[in-house]
Amino acid sequence: MAGFNKVVSSYEDAMAGLKDGMTVIAGGFGLCGIPEGLIAQIKTLGVSNLTVVSNNCGVDGFGLGLLLEDKQIAKMVSSYVGENALFEKQLLDGELEVELTPQGTLAEKMRAGGAGIPAFYTATGYGTPVGEGKEVKSFNGRPYILEEAITGDFAIVKAWKADTFGNCVYRHTAQNFNPMAATAGKITVVEAEEIVEPGTLNPSEIHTPGIYVNRVIQGTFEKRIERRVVSEESV
């Protein structure tokens, strides 16, 4: 079974083949469930003119925000961009193209891409700038717009546990966009908190089957909290 072992020992091997101009789909939501080491490796590689598809672009100095520092991202496809001052500056200066996409639509674009479905109809965005220039069709008297699926050259995701075959389990809210992203990459790389032997994971608990995964690497994670909110106990 050694031929099924997808574990790589270095971040260089994990992201081997990434080149200028490619599309990278990244799992995560804010700073929750992001593949921190794989993002850092993209920065180290210095590749540029990337299209990055992710819910948002991290924060200044961390997560996908690291890739803005050297202007490695040419286009961002995301649903939320509100926590990153450098993102805002590059957008307003015309240095960064942004395709704002409703969050559910973005998730479905990834899922459809991974399922081999080229496009789908959704009511979300009809009658707004999101729907401008898109095909409209009526179903049961309600208008829907046609949205194209998304696939990427690379998909980078973060798992709680992965086995050496690439089967993945995500933990709680860190699941977020990771399962959809994992299906939509030509090369999918998983950064896991823990790598276990095959047969260790309960089959009914696996979120991403290893058939979608090309490489697995053991990661270490800082797990920053994007915005800490606490309540004061009443006296």
UniProtKB/TrEMBL annotation:
Signal peptide: none annotated. PANTHER family: KETOACID-COENZYME A TRANSFERASE, SUCCINYL-COA:3-KETOACID-COENZYME A TRANSFERASE. Keywords: Transferase. It comes from the Bacteria. It holds the Pfam family CoA_trans. GO terms for molecular function: succinyl-CoA:3-oxo-acid CoA-transferase activity. This is Succinyl-CoA:3-ketoacid-CoA transferase. The keyword Transferase applies. NCBIfam families: pcaI_scoA_fam. InterPro entries: 3-oxoacid_CoA-transf_A, CoA_trans_fam_I, CoA_transf_BS, NagB/RpiA_transferase-like. SUPFAM superfamilies: NagB/RpiA/CoA transferase-like (SSF100950).
